[in-house]
Amino acid sequence: GIADALSAHRPARASRLGARVARLDTSEDNVAVRRLMHRYRFDRIERIHYYHAMPMRGADPPRTVQRREIEAAWGLARGRLLHEDYVARELTRTDVARAIRSGTCYAVGEPGRPRALAIAEPQPASSWMGRSRLRVRLVAGTPSAMRELLVALRAQAHIARVERAGIAPPSELWPVVRAAGYRRRWHDAMLVFERRLR
Question: How far apart are CA 192 and CA 168, in angstroms?
Answer without folding.
Answer: 12
